[in-house]
Write a structure and sequence with these properties.
- This is Acetylornithine aminotransferase.
- By secondary structure, the chain is α/β, with parallel strands linked by helices.
- It is built from 14 helices and 15 strands.
- Strand 1 and strand 2 form a beta hairpin.
- Helix 4 runs parallel beside helix 11.
């Protein structure tokens, strides 16, 4: 069957508006479309393709598991799931893991666990959840309400209750909001969709201390920041703060759908048999691929390389900005970076994205004022330099057209 971009408009629900080109093949950090045009990928499937496209070791893991077991249901366990869970607990603060299919599902599980734990330990009055403006935690009705962007949760009827928000990095506002009725605080240790905003050290430590004071669980949403993205296996490891619950997805499967919620043995006890579940969560195919991803990424050489590549990205971006001033600062950490546009180009992030696509470069936005990059963690220097040459041409096109 011959399909084109026009086919999308004929058969798909219009909640997406994809680019005019249709990718058909990828290798490493290069992608080819239906017409054979080659693109450099600085988007990484929105921080998902952590090892690029069709990494040979991931392909091998998928093929080998594909000849053994695909699906069992959680009436049974399976070896890849147990191995992956053991590697995750060995590498993090956590004792227990729950597998799902996505970041939203992992966050849904984390929020349900926090509510159930508070009910078990403190009673039904302890139910408030605090999150942060501009945060993003998924698209289920619960997670999108906890997310701090009303535009995503408005228009669907009554929202889940006992959820409050304050500004990220505003410790005084947070302290005014939290109380003994707070059961959980959910935050990204590096805000992604909200504009690539790093936490101030005193803020994140203050949040942890106030959670301890009020017996509230601290949930870190590491769906975008986790699995090597910041140069550490998980972002919390460089913040001097340990969460009670952490969620992971996106890069965890290197492109294969998987999510995980990690927590301590004590807290995990509240999800007794029957309290929560997932048909596909922990399936052998996803876990076999994710296990290989973790083996490759949780390596000193790879993680150090992320920091080295960050410096190259920043240096090349600054060179472009000297010629064509378009951003105020480069935000973020590791290979989750964002160019915050200067006042002249406010609201035009998508113009830069569209121009980049025209120059055969795939990148992202984070709101209307930030151009975002989330490439493969093992992208080559050659691909970084070629991608930046294309980005410079895109920037020139936007700046000169203004």
């Amino acid at each position: 069957m011959n399909v084109t971009r026009a086919t999308f408009d004929e058969v798909m629900v219009p909640n997406y508006n994809p680019a005019s080109m249709v990718p058909v093949r990828g290798e490493g950090s290069r992608v080819w479309d239906q017409n054979g045009a080659e693109y450099v990928d600085f988007a990484g499937g929105i921080a998902v393709n952590v090892l690029g496209h069709c990494h040979p070791e991931l392909v091998k893991a998928l093929e080998e598991q594909g000849r053994k077991l695909w699906h069992l249901s959680n009436v049974f366990t399976n070896e890849p799931a147990m191995r992956l869970a053991k590697k995750l607990t060995d590498a993090t603060f956590a004792d227990r893991v729950y597998f799902a299919n996505s970041g939203a599902e992992s966050n849904e599980a984390a929020l349900k666990l926090a509510r159930r734990y508070a009910l078990d330990k403190f009673g039904e009055d302890k139910n408030q959840i605090i999150a942060f403006n501009k945060g993003f935690h998924g698209r289920t009705f619960f997670t999108v309400t906890v997310g701090g962007q009303a535009a995503y949760s408005d228009g669907f009827g009554p929202k889940p209750g006992a959820i409050d928000h304050c500004d990220y990095n505003d410790l005084a506002a947070f302290e005014a909001l939290i109380s003994d009725k707070t059961c959980a605080v959910m935050m990204e240790p590096l805000q992604g969709e909200g504009g690539i905003i790093s936490p101030e050290p005193e803020f994140v430590k203050g949040v942890r201390a106030l959670c301890d004071k009020h017996n509230a669980l601290l949930i870190f949403d590491e769906v975008q920041s986790g699995v090597g993205r910041t140069g550490h296996l998980y972002a919390y490891m460089d913040l001097g703060v340990t969460p009670d619950i952490m969620t992971s997805a996106k890069a965890l499967g290197g492109g294969f759908p998987i999510g995980a919620m990690l927590t301590t043995a004590k807290i995990a006890e509240s999800l007794k048999p029957g309290t929560h579940g997932s048909t596909y969560g922990g399936n052998p195919l996803a876990c076999a691929v994710a296990e290989k991803v973790l083996d490759i990424v949780n390596n000193e050489t790879v993680l150090k390389g992320v920091c080295e590549k960050e410096e190259l990205f920043r240096s090349l971006l600054n060179d472009i900005n000297k010629k064509y001033p378009f951003f105020e600062e480069v935000r973020g950490k590791g290979l989750l970076l964002g160019c915050a546009l200067n006042e002249k180009f406010h609201g035009k992030a998508r113009d830069f994205l569209n121009a980049a696509t025209q120059e055969k470069l795939m990148c992202l936005v984070a709101g209307a004022n930030v151009v975002r990059f989330a490439p493969s963690l093992v992208i080559s220097e050659e691909d970084i330099r070629e991608g930046m040459a294309r980005f410079e041409r895109a920037v020139a096109a936007v700046v000169n057209a203004d």
